[in-house]
Design brief:
This protein is mainly α. Helices cover 18% and strands 0% of the residues. It is built from one helix and no strands. The longest helix is centred in the last third of the chain and has 8 residues, at 28-35.
């Protein structure tokens, strides 16, 4: 059976553009930590 989704991701060619990505919403990381079961607050 042929795989539809690639299993190995290589973002090397995109790394030079990473500094231009938009910032995360202020509470995004804290929300994800809480959803994952942690209670730590992440300073942004």
């Amino acid at each position: 059976m042929k795989k539809i989704v690639e299993q190995v991701w290589d973002y090397t060619k995109h790394a030079k553009f990473y500094e231009f990505r938009p910032n995360y919403a202020p509470n995004t990381i804290t929300m994800l930590v809480k959803l994952a079961g942690g209670g730590a607050k992440i300073p942004l």
